[in-house]
Write a structure and sequence with these properties.
Layout (H helix, E strand, L loop, with lengths): L5 H16 L5 H13 L13 E13 L1 H7 L2 H21 L3 E6 L2 E6 L8 H25 L6 E17 L4 E6 L1 H12 L5 E4 H7 L4 E2 L3 E3 L8 E9 L4 E2 L10 E14 L2 E2 L4 E9 L2 E6 L8 E8 L4 E16 L2 E10 L2 H17 L1
Parallel strand pairs: 4-6
Antiparallel strand pairs: 1-3, 1-4, 2-3, 4-5, 6-9, 7-9, 8-9, 9-10, 11-12, 11-13, 11-15, 13-14, 14-17, 15-16, 16-17
Helix pairs in contact: 1-2, 2-4, 4-5
Length: 360
């Protein structure tokens, strides 16, 4: 990228953000972009006809959880009112940490670290960016609550590996992007993340193990991979004083019940028609402990339906993910955390739980 093209690049970035969010970037964000472009000018790719080059890149994918359900329940103006501040603030955080927004995908963002310019701290900056994104969304939710708006939650996945980077397209339209199996892996890891979580691949962890505090490794099965994959949840970055907000949503009042329920498996984003059954033994605001007729492995995604007898309501269109399993008295119990739930259903579940609490 030549120096005379920097204003054009900044203008393009502003246009992308404006089109996606309805608002311009702040002056601080614009200054950050300009400084970053000038500082890395000689290392950036400028020729749109350049061949794709192999680069080690950290790919960050962030996706708002349950936003489709919120969008179906609220007027379009309210939805934009919620989404705009999130995308704007996330963009500012990304540019602050030197990330490159590869693309906006509806309510998801793909960010690259090390694609245009390779730095020794690419992985560290990607992790700090992810933690700050979760922290900022936590703050936005506090403001939303005061304005009577629902909470928004984001899942983030990060993977590091070799990709092909270059300009893809034609004279009519082209864009700088990355392609390769490592991009797909980042997408798979993001899909496994629960709301409020930052999950990283083992390749990313090995490059930052002295920099980040994480959970123990979790083994997951990824489509297209014969071998299992190890991921870890980022908890904190001690040297920077950063910590992922522990979502109170993961800890709510829970009550013992015995409710039959039906569920469908979700494979590659598609709901399988076959209805399976189980029994709910424990329910909270945002998850259930169940006994399944056919056990399902951790990280399995489900679509759930069950009746709430005390409030005469059928809770449906609930999406969840198997997060843990434990055996007690010879019975295998499965913990399911809700990943997407319509606001009306959420209200009824909370009412149901509260009624049982007060009945004790």
């Amino acid at each position: 990228m030549k120096s005379h093209s920097i204003p054009k690049t900044i203008s393009r970035i502003r246009k992308i953000v404006l089109n996606e969010t309805g608002k311009d970037l702040s002056r601080h964000a614009l200054r950050e972009i300009e400084v970053e472009l000038v500082a890395t000018d000689v290392n950036m790719i400028s020729d749109e006809n350049s061949d794709f080059q192999s680069r080690e890149v950290s790919i960050l994918l962030a996706d708002l959880r349950g936003f489709t359900a919120i969008a179906s329940e609220y007027p379009a103006g309210t939805v934009i009112q919620m989404l705009n501040p999130v995308l704007i603030k996330m963009s500012e955080i990304i540019f602050k940490h030197g990330g490159t927004i590869d693309k906006f995908m509806g309510d998801a963002i793909m960010v690259l670290f090390g694609a245009l310019t390779k730095r020794d701290d690419d992985v560290a900056r990607a992790l700090a960016c992810a933690v700050e994104m979760q922290t900022k969304l936590h703050q936005i939710n506090a403001d939303n609550k005061q304005n009577g708006l629902p909470d928004l939650y984001m899942g983030i996945g990060i993977n590091t590996g070799e990709v092909l980077a270059g300009v893809l397209g034609s004279d009519v339209y082209s864009e700088y992007t990355v392609i390769g199996d490592e991009v797909n892996m980042a997408s798979r890891i993001e899909a496994f993340s629960l709301r409020g979580q930052v999950l990283i691949s083992d390749s990313t962890f090995q490059l930052c193990r002295d920099f980040v505090e994480t959970s123990e490794p979790m083994i997951i099965h990824v489509k297209g991979k014969a071998q299992t994959v190890s991921v870890r949840e980022v908890l904190a970055i001690p040297t920077k004083g950063l910590r992922v907000p522990r979502q109170e949503i993961r800890r709510s009042h829970r009550v013992q019940v015995r409710l039959p329920f039906s569920y469908q498996l979700i494979r590659s984003g598609i709901v399988v028609p076959e209805l399976l059954s189980g029994t709910i033994h424990d329910i909270g605001y945002h998850g259930v402990l169940v006994e399944l007729a056919i056990p399902q492995p951790p990280m399995t995604e489900l679509k759930i339906t069950f009746e709430l007898p005390h409030v005469s309501y059928i809770a449906k269109d609930i999406y969840g993910k198997v997060v843990n399993q434990k055996t007690r008295d010879g019975v295998l119990y499965t913990g399911i955390e809700f990943t997407s739930i319509p606001p009306a259903v959420d209200t009824k579940i909370q009412l149901f739980v509260q009624m049982l609490i007060f009945a004790d």
